[in-house]
Amino acid sequence: MKRLSAKAVRNIEGSLFIAPWVVGFFVFMAFPIFYSLYMSFHRVQVLATGIEANFVGFDLYKSILFENGSVLYNDLIPFLSEAVIMLPIIIIFSLLIAIILNQRFPGRLAFRMIFFLPVIFTTGRVILEFIAQGEGGLDFLSRYNVNSFIATRLPELWANAIITVLESFILILWYSGVQILLFLAGRQTIPSSIYEASRIDGANPWETFWKITLPGMIPFIFLNLIYTVVDLFTFPTNPIIAKVNSSNYGLSSALAWIYFMIILAFLGVTLLVFHRITRSYRVVNS
């Protein structure tokens, strides 16, 4: 019997190690994804004799996009408005906290744990329960009647979006733990020798931030933007995801694919705006 070469043995071993992941991917990821695409073109009924699927083409997509606005637009437009407000809040808050946590001060490790712990504890159900109880808001809003002030001075769509964000402001910041961690890792990639050189040249902290820290963090801002957009669109309070259920498999599948395309479009617009801003910033500082 011919013995296998060392290279062939290594290939077999590697294939065996990766086989569980490949099987799991096709069974639990690829198959459900493509089956949902298949169902989105069919009216699906679950009968006692099995699943009956009748081909309807793009009818379900047309119904969601052009005929029944309550399925998508009534919830999507307010949510997109809230996402536009939450995105810069989370990114800026995370960046500032990461810069602070990178400083040397007593209890730094404890503060890092405090800011990351909500990511571990706040599962979707916990967040929903907090929101249902009215927790996570800012008390001074009702004390100083800020909501009425916003409602009387802004268009209804944006006023409602801002009020909704403010009423769960603390909970939104709780979701900044991963972004803080990424920014903290990114901040530590900037050599301390650059900061020492800037201090020797007489740069103050404000100039150091704009000339050294912020340019060095741009790749991590880019990374956090992608992460935060995806995270926001899978937020526990997301009203679109709540409509993707098992009551109507065909319609839910079509809605899920439309929503997926909207996420890609929103992500593309966000990255385009980010690219324009960073290009202008580089031109100004060059």
TrEMBL record:
CDD domains, per the entry: TM_PBP2
PROSITE patterns named among the record's database cross-references: ABC_TM1
Keywords (A to Z) from UniProt: Cell membrane, Membrane, Transmembrane, Transmembrane helix, Transport
Family the entry assigns: Belongs to the binding-protein-dependent transport system permease family.
Biological processes annotated in GO: transmembrane transport
Record localization: Cell membrane
Signal peptide: none
The organism of origin for this protein: Paenibacillus antri
tRNA processing in keyword set: no
Main localization (coarse): membrane
Residues passing through the membrane, by range: 12-35, 76-101, 113-132, 157-184, 217-235, 255-274
Name this protein carries in UniProt: Sugar ABC transporter permease
One GO term describing the cellular component: plasma membrane
InterPro entries in the record: MetI-like, MetI-like_sf, UgpAE/MalFG_permease
ABC transmembrane type-1 domain location: 76-278
Membrane topology value: Multi-pass membrane protein
